[in-house]
Amino acid sequence: MRNWKRASFEVPVVTLILFFLMAVVQTTQANDWETPGMIGQNKEPAHCTLMPYPDTETALVGTRQSSPFHKSLNGRWKFNWVKKPADRPKDFYKLNYDITIGKVPHFSRSSGVT
Question: Is residue 40 predicted with pLDDT exceeding 50?
C-alpha cells in the first residue's frame, strides 16, 4: 500500500516544477519584433491592384500598359548617388547645373541577375 503522506507531497511539487518549466520556456521564446526573419504575419504581400482607365473597353483589355495613365519607371533617370550628403554636388538645384544621366537602379530579380 502506498504512503498517502508522500503521495500528497509529490503532486504539488511536481505541479510546481511543471509550472516553473512552462514559465521558463515561455520567457525564452523570442518576440516577433525581435526575430529578424519575421517581416509579416497574417497579411498579404504588398501589391497594387488599382489602375484607372478612361473607358470600359480599355479596362476590359486587362493590361496596365493599355491605360493612358500607366507610366513605367524603367529607363533613363537623372540622379547622382553619393555615400554621404557632404559629397553631393553643391549647386545641383540650380537650373543651369549639368546633370549626368544614369541608369535606374533596379531589382536583380527583374533584370535576370541572380
Answer: yes
